[in-house]
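Hi F.,

I've been meaning to write this up properly since the lab meeting, where we talked about keeping a consistent format for the predictions we share between groups. The idea is simple: the sequence comes first, exactly as it goes in, then the structure tokens exactly as they come out, then a line or two of notes. No screenshots and no reformatting. I'm using this chain as the first example so we have something concrete to point to.
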Amino acid sequence: MRAALIDYGSGNIASAAKALSRAAADTSGHTIIVTADPDMVRKCERIILPGVGAFADCMRGLSAVPGMIEALNESVIQNGRPILGICVGMQLMATAGREFGVHAGLNWIEGEVIPLSPADPALKIPHMGWNEIDLMQNHPVFADLESSANAYFVHSFEMKPTTPAHLLATTDYGGAITAAIGRDNIVGTQFHPEKSQDVGLKILGNFLSWSP
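Output, unedited:
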């Protein structure tokens, strides 16, 4: 079994690959394939889409890989392969991002990516550091987490899904902000599981073992 970690020039590829390989060794046994090859993406049993930086830059980077968006749509939307989006990789699943203008996303989960606006003006942007994950509903990718599980965040924008059922988890940063979204075979985390130690490894292992 193989899992494709998409390399399009925007993401913590080395740390994500290392964490995924460790999680796979402990759970599913998947081989983690770091790839920019759309044909390889089509052959893999599941997909991880990372992302760091501005929404528009990441979307341009993904679009610049010939055939990649078509391969992702084929694998994820047509064939129902499980996919995990991480940070901006999660945000790209939205309809649009509102960072330096309005930019179209993949539109897999209806909603927009908007600037963080914590109620407490003393809170700094970007939101950076460890915060508790508050699960809004049960989901296999977040199964068996401790009630006070913390994960590592670095971001200035958040995804606001249009449908409440697509909001899987929040965290508190001057009010509730999106920590995870998902529907069907699609799941995404605003936080970085590859930087979230045991909690992150548990989530990655759950994703690799997940059968939506």
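Notes:
The longest helix spans residues 13-26.
The CA atoms of residues 90 and 155 lie 12 Å apart.

If this format works for you, I'll send the rest the same way.

G.
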